[in-house]
């Protein structure tokens, strides 16, 4: 049992342990759970989470995908997926996720706050209790994949959330190609190791820009850093997503990019990543079956 649980006084501790049990039962109905992490903020983690989830939905899993926006203090998945301001339903069994494109189920603190300006201020053991209550009350139902957009960085908050979520398949690390970002990828790998969590692979976002007018390619944040660090750390490289102004425009409008830009290079990159992730999960399953025989 984690030290966070031990920190709580007895009656609160019992309630907390009960919540963790409920969370575990709910999570067991989800076949695969993948957390999206980054060593630092602003590299496109939320954008990648939403579009990757959508790419999976398009790849034969419509209505069987969920996104948990676990960025408790800065939730922005509802905005990116076009569910900003959505009212969610709740009942005796818990709260029901909002439904986005392709029937994707989305849950975010953003749905529970009275306004965009309301900050979430939870401190100390109460904070853990509030987070575990939030997570354990979500009624996901049966899903093939749940993607978890963690808070930026590798600090206490993402760590605590990951400790609460049981039986994850692993993490996908999002980075940009610059050297500074490569250094923080190592932190994300250490973070995963600390949690005993496999690294499914690295995605290089904001990987080059092709001018839509002249077709000239420009490597704004350099190029190939993601692949290089993946090789150095012996971690699978899942793919590169270029900078496309339409990605940013789509997120701001709440029209998920993948839905509207089927033939764009970024869209094709997302679809390739889906295949790689699926292959990796299949291999892991075969390996664990072999080990248990
Ligand atoms: N490949 C891309 N091309 C163009 N714009 C992008 C791309 N990836 C992300 N963006 C834009 O970059 C900004 C930051 O992206 P996003 O919010 O997904 O980052 P984040 O890593 O989740 O940030 P935070 O650390 O604050 O959670 C957004 O405006 C998003 O639309
Ligand atoms: Mg984010």
Structural summary, described in words:
By secondary structure, the chain is α/β, with parallel strands linked by helices. The protein has a single domain (3-283), classed as 3-Layer(aba) Sandwich (Rossmann fold). Helices cover 45% and strands 19% of the residues. The strands form two sheets. Strands 1, 2, 5, 6, 7, 8, 9, 10 and 11 form a nine-stranded mixed β-sheet that branches. Strands 3-4 form a two-stranded antiparallel ribbon. The two termini are 29 Å apart. 42% of the residues are buried. Bound molecules: adenosine-5'-triphosphate and magnesium ion. Adenosine-5'-triphosphate is lined by residues 38, 41-47, 71, 74, 76, 152, 205-206, 241, 243-244, 247-248, 251.
Short summary of the structure?
The protein has 293 residues and is an alpha/beta fold. The protein has helices spanning 3-7, 10-27, 45-61, 77-81, 124-136, 156-164, 179-194, 225-233, 245-253, 257-260, 265-292, and strands at 30-37, 65-69, 90-91, 94-95, 98-99, 105-108, 143-149, 170-175, 199-210, 217-218, 237-243. 42% of the residues are buried.
Give the full name of the CATH homologous superfamily: P-loop containing nucleotide triphosphate hydrolases
Q: How many helical elements?
A: 11
Fraction in beta strands: 15-25%
Structural class of the helices, strands and pairings? Answer: alpha/beta
What value does the average pLDDT take? 88
Could you give the count of β-strands?
11
Attribute tags:
293 residues; alpha/beta; Rossmann fold; nine-stranded mixed β-sheet; 11 helices; 11 strands; globular; binds adenosine-5'-triphosphate; binds magnesium ion
């Amino acid at each position: 049992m984690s030290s966070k649980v031990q920190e709580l006084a007895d009656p609160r501790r019992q309630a907390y342990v009960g919540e963790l049990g409920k969370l575990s039962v709910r999570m067991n109905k989800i076949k695969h759970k993948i957390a999206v992490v980054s060593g630092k903020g602003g590299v496109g983690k939320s954008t990648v989470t939403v579009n990757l989830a959508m790419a999976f939905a398009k790849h034969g899993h419509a209505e069987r995908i969920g996104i948990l926006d676990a960025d408790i203090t800065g939730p922005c998945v509802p905005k990116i997926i076009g569910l900003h301001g959505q009212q969610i339903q709740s009942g005796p069994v818990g709260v029901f996720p909002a439904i986005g494109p392709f029937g994707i189920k989305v849950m975010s603190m953003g749905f529970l706050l009275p306004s965009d300006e309301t900050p979430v201020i939870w401190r100390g053991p109460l904070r853990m209790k509030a987070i575990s209550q939030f997570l354990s009350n979500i009624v996901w139902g049966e899903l093939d994949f749940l993607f978890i957009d963690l808070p930026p960085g590798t600090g206490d908050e993402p760590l605590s959330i990951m400790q609460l979520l049981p039986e994850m398949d692993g993490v996908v690390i999002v980075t940009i190609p610059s050297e500074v970002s490569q250094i923080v990828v190592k932190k994300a790998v250490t973070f995963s190791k600390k949690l005993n969590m496999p690294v499914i692979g690295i995605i290089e976002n904001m990987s080059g820009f092709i001018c839509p007018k002249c077709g000239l390619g420009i490597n704004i944040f350099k190029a190939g850093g993601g692949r290089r660090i993946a090789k150095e750390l012996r971690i699978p490289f899942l793919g590169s997503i270029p900078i496309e102004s339409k990605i940013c425009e789509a997120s701001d409008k709440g029209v998920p990019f993948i839905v509207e830009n089927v033939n764009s290079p970024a869209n094709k990159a997302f679809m390739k990543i889906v295949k790689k992730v699926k292959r990796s999960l299949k291999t892991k399953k075969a390996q664990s079956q072999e080990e248990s025989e």
